[in-house]
């Protein structure tokens, strides 16, 4: 009996509060089928910007 396991990918997005960079990154991440099921961690030094982009990522998550 063959057992298959799927490796989970963890993606850490440094500078996630950047709207210009973030929007295209989210689009690419959420439309790449090979990354389905991955864990996305957002990091930024600006808490307000990070909160905005976190909310956007949650809205865009399929």
Automatic annotation (TrEMBL):
Gene3D superfamilies: AglA-like glucosidase (3.90.1820.10). The keyword Repeat does not apply. The keyword NAD applies. InterPro entries: GH4_Enzyme_sf, Glyco_hydro_4, NAD(P)-bd_dom_sf. One of its GO terms (biological process) is carbohydrate metabolic process. Pfam families: Glyco_hydro_4. Keywords: NAD. SUPFAM superfamilies: NAD(P)-binding Rossmann-fold domains. One of its GO terms (molecular function) is hydrolase activity, hydrolyzing O-glycosyl compounds. This is Alpha-galactosidase. It comes from Azospirillum baldaniorum. The gene is melA.
